[in-house]
Amino acid sequence: MLTRLSDLRLREVINLADGQRLGFIDDVELEIEEGRITAVIIPIRSRPWKILFREEDLVIPWEKVHMIGTDVILVDLAGTARVQRK
């Protein structure tokens, strides 16, 4: 299945472990030499007045992505802590 990053950004990411809606993909990490995606990145906004400033990002390793559907992306983050992007 071929898809574009712009298509992935339109799909909501759902955690299979607890059913939580995590948000929408904002960016991806790429391994350029191997030509593969290593992680998807979802911005976390904790306060309404900080819409323009992200406090942290949720970095989800590609191995945690279980399924990419037409409307949602299912990930399994059971036992995974949030990681702040540098």
- Give the low-pLDDT segments: none
Mean pLDDT across every amino acid position: 83
**Envelope shape:** globular
Helix content: under 10%
For the largest sheet, list the strands in their spatial order.
2-1-7-6
Q: Major sheet: size, sense and barrel closure?
A: 4 strands, mixed
Radius of gyration: 13 Å
Return the CATH class: Mainly Beta
Helix/strand-derived class? mainly beta
CATH architectural label: Roll
β-strand number: 7
Give the helices and strands as they follow along the chain: HEEEEEEE
Oligomer designation: single chain
Task: Note the beta-strand portion.
Answer: 35-45%
- CATH topology title: SH3 type barrels
What is the rounded distance between the termini?
31 Å
How would you summarize this macromolecular structure in one to three sentences?
By secondary structure, the protein is mainly beta. The chain contains 1 helix and 7 strands; from the N terminus they run αβββββββ. The longest helix is centred in the first third of the chain and has 4 residues, at 5-8.
Descriptive notes:
It is built from one helix and seven strands. The longest helix has 4 residues. The chain has a single domain, classed as PRC-barrel domain (SH3 type barrels). It is globular. The protein is mainly β and 86 residues long. The N and C termini lie far apart (31 Å).
Output the keywords:
86 residues; mainly beta; SH3 type barrels; 4-stranded mixed sheet; 3-stranded antiparallel sheet; 7 strands; 42% strand; globular
Break the fold down into its secondary structure elements and pairings:
Elements: H1 5-8, E1 12-15, E2 21-24, E3 27-31, E4 36-44, E5 56-61, E6 65-68, E7 72-75
Parallel strand pairs: 1-7
Antiparallel strand pairs: 1-2, 3-4, 4-5, 6-7
